[in-house]
Specification:
Blueprint: E1 2-6, H1 10-20, E2 27-32, H2 35-45, E3 49-52, H3 61-66, E4 73-78, H4 82-91, E5 95-97, H5 102-114, H6 118-129, E6 138-143, E7 146-151, E8 157-161, E9 164-169, E10 172-176, H7 180-186, E11 192-196, E12 199-202, E13 206-211, E14 217-221, E15 226-229, H8 231-241
Parallel strand pairs: 1-2, 1-3, 3-4, 4-5
Antiparallel strand pairs: 6-7, 8-9, 8-12, 9-10, 11-12, 13-14, 14-15
Helix pairs in contact: 4-6
Length: about 240
Amino acid sequence: MKVIIIDDEPLARSIVKEYLQKHTALEIVQECNDGFEGVKAIQQHQPDLIFLDIQMPKINGFEMLELIEQPPAVIFTTAFDEYAIKAFDAHAVDYLLKPFNQERFDKAIQKLREQTNSEKANEELLETASQSPSQNHRIVVKTGSKIKIIPVQDVHYLEAADDYVKIFTQEGHFLKNKTMNHFEKVLDGAVFVRSHRSYIVNVQQITRIDPYEKENYVAILRSGAKVPISRAGYVKLRSILGL
């Protein structure tokens, strides 16, 4: 099995390397200092397993995993907060809470071998972790070979696009492999309103609301963009805007 270690602490990486010496079937193909390097290394090597820290510079471990279309099996190595630990426990993805010893490390390897659906477990874990308050102030997207961090206050509106969501900012739009329901849960409901089944709008960007057809409306944004508003969305917007 090909293995990549992703951790910004050299000592932590060296401990994982030391413990892996006992497991001759696992081959380290690369070490990475941060999530940016991790994304590139995973694309290049297509590993079977990654050891992943959570708290890293630039982007954290959860945000990095969201950028990988088909994530490999993951063993987290972390000193992260209680919320993340609950997410791990709930979705059966193993984690090593720093500091850990060889015995605990060996158990994680054994658990990984017994696990049959790590991809689904990873998806559920990321969905739970993304609802933590620490994850809700920015959106990390991949555009070509580059990774972009979008502060949520820069988002004008979001639009459903098949299995993706289009995130519109002043610079254009970016795709994120998430659902509208996900963003409705994690974004601040006092600022981002589900105006329509396929749209979420930043109310701070609205300059006016015009009647459209039947009982529907359209929000005109500062950028000139027009965002549809359904009857239910209009009720929500009126409440938020105090109209």
